[in-house]
Design goal:
By secondary structure, this protein is of the alpha/beta class. The chain has 14 helices and twelve strands. The structure holds L-rhamnitol and zinc ion (ZN).
Length: 422
């Protein structure tokens, strides 16, 4: 039996087994097309961007560690890498671009000067790929961010500089959404915070609110732009306080019906982001996810299929929230093959959603409502060893991408013929 036949046969058996538990695998497979993942450009080059030839991530409370060879050093290399990544992933994707990845044609264009034209080649590329595009203002790796405060700075000229950047990014995002015919989700994350215990937290939060109010004064059609706000518990060098805390942004998002971005690397280790989904969606229309894998103080390892991500996916699928949740990834590992990291992380995220779709939710709910809690636990435990892998492999086969670990060889080949020559 060849690999294809084996995958098909395994699927047939899995389909029957799931069917015995009341789950229709064919429906799950069809539904997987609704799981659209926004691929973050910054895994390809360690959040460097292309503002200057030697751009590297500086400041901002985030760090990329490792120096694995072959990182993308130009827009064309980044596009090539992303095309390779897309060719190895099943299902649908979008591009998620940071402002510092603009196509500045060798010119030095400061953040308060960027315009839609600097992103036209990216928009065109997305159109060619048939994918939507998301965007992010970049409030780090800049001299005016070095003091640790941007939109919440007490220095009025610095604050105004970043408000201008934000205004421009919203304009660019709306243009992206208009041209591509799918709303651009623009996520705001600022590194503002303090290393040691501050006494005037309030003033910074008042200033952040003021800056957001100023930048949001212009309204754009929702079909073009969706603004999202991302909180963080702490950052490297901002251990004692972050201005943009969860309470700050959740309050702001509810008051102004903005999207709240939940990055599962940005909370206390025992807090589960999956638990936050239903609460937030009672009060805001939509969420943005930054799926990642925190380890100790780092929030940005490549996603793997763990309980954290699975609970997030399950809560979305159980409540039929896919159309209210925008799924993004946010990790940057410079210590391994960067394309490999993309593929492992993206596949893991999709797997979590597929597992969620293969859950007999109605049956579990009934057990819960009947107070049959041992039975609920037992069934949840049994589900973990159902032949999910056979359904996943079949999905990859049907999607025309490598099945199982076959993509490893493709990544190695790309490393040999492309990355190692950089
Ligand atoms: C940082 C935030 C933020 C960034 C990206 C690059 O802690 O998670 O989302 O990772 O904007
Ligand atoms: Zn994030």
């Amino acid at each position: 039996m060849n690999n294809r036949e084996l995958t098909e046969k395994a699927y047939e058996i899995a389909r029957e087994q799931y069917s015995n538990s009341g789950v229709d695998t064919d429906i799950a497979l069809a539904k997987m097309d609704n799981v659209v993942i926004s691929l973050h450009c910054w895994q390809a080059d360690d959040v460097g961007g292309f503002e200057t030839p030697d751009a590297t991530l500086t400041g901002g409370g985030i760090q990329a560690t490792g120096n694995y060879p072959g990182k993308a050093t130009s827009i064309s290399e980044l596009k090539k890498d992303l095309e390779k990544v897309l060719s190895l992933l099943p299902g649908k994707y979008r591009l998620n671009l940071h402002a510092l990845y603009g196509d500045f044609g060798g010119e030095l264009v400061d953040r308060d000067q960027i315009e839609p034209k600097h992103f036209q080649t990216w928009i065109d590329w997305c159109r060619e790929q048939g994918i939507g595009m998301d965007f992010n203002p970049s409030f780090f790796s800049h001299p005016k961010a070095q003091a640790g405060f941007t939109l919440s700075s007490k220095d009025e000229s610095i604050r105004q500089f970043w408000v201008e950047h934000l205004k421009r990014c919203r304009k660019i995002s709306a243009e992206i959404g208009r041209q591509l015919g799918t709303p651009c989700v623009m996520n705001i994350w600022i590194p503002d915070g303090s290393k040691d215990i501050p006494v005037d937290r309030n003033a910074h939060r008042v200033l952040l609110k003021k800056s957001l109010d100023e930048a949001f004064a212009v309204t754009y059609p929702k079909e073009h732009l969706k603004d999202a706000l991302e909180s963080k518990l702490f950052g490297i060098g901002a251990e004692a306080m972050t201005v943009g805390s969860q309470e700050f942004y959740l309050g702001y998002a509810i008051q102004h019906n903005k999207l709240i971005c939940l990055d599962n690397g940005h909370f206390h280790p025992t807090e589960q982001v999956g638990d936050k989904v239903t609460s937030c969606l009672l009060y805001v229309d939509e969420l943005l996810l930054h799926l990642t894998r925190p380890i100790r103080w780092d929030s940005d390892h490549a996603v793997t299929l763990n309980e954290d991500v699975q609970l997030i996916a399950s809560e979305i699928i159980r409540n039929d929230f896919l159309n209210r949740v925008n799924i993004g990834l946010d990790f940057f590992d410079a210590s391994i093959n960067r394309l490999g990291a993309y593929i492992v992380g993206s596949r893991a995220a999709k797997k979590a959603f597929m597992i969620a779709m293969l859950e007999p939710f109605a049956r579990l709910k009934e057990l819960e409502e009947n107070g049959q809690l041992f039975e609920r636990l037992a069934l949840l435990e049994e589900l973990k060893t159902k032949p999910f892998g056979a359904v996943w492999d079949y999905y990859c086969l049907k999607s025309g991408v490598p099945v199982g670990e076959d993509y490893i060889a493709e990544v190695q080949e790309y490393e040999r013929t492309v990355l190692s020559l950089r």
